[in-house]
Design a protein that fits this description.
The chain is mainly alpha-helical and about 90 residues long. It has helices spanning about 1-15, 20, 25-30, 45-60, 60-70, 75-80, and strands at about 35, 85. Strands 1-2 form a two-stranded antiparallel ribbon. The chain is globular. The termini are far apart.
Length: about 90
């Protein structure tokens, strides 16, 4: 039983913390040169916002999938007003 649950728990934990482990960027965001910004176009450095943003996507997965199809935004993005995009400014981070 532990051999079934342990990989699942590790996978979910890594997914929730994916943006905080590599300083605001997951592996895919690093490859594509993308950052997570708040509504004022500052790079989000607050780890709690990054974790809660992913947690809402995980917790409300069916709703998040529907919103991505309809609005092109997930639940976490809408709740925390974040934007994923290319680097805008050099020293603009909070």
């Amino acid at each position: 039983m532990i051999f079934v649950l342990l990989p699942f728990i590790v996978s979910i934990t890594l997914w929730v913390y994916k943006d905080t482990i590599l300083k605001n960027r997951s592996i895919g965001k690093k490859i594509m040169g993308l950052y997570i910004y708040d509504c004022n176009h500052y790079i989000v450095q607050n780890k709690e916002i990054l974790i809660q943003r992913i947690f809402y996507e995980l917790w409300l997965f069916p709703v998040s999938c529907f919103l991505i199809l309809i609005c092109n935004q997930s639940v976490g993005v809408q709740k925390y007003k974040t934007i994923v995009g290319q680097k805008l400014f050099e020293n603009k981070s909070i």
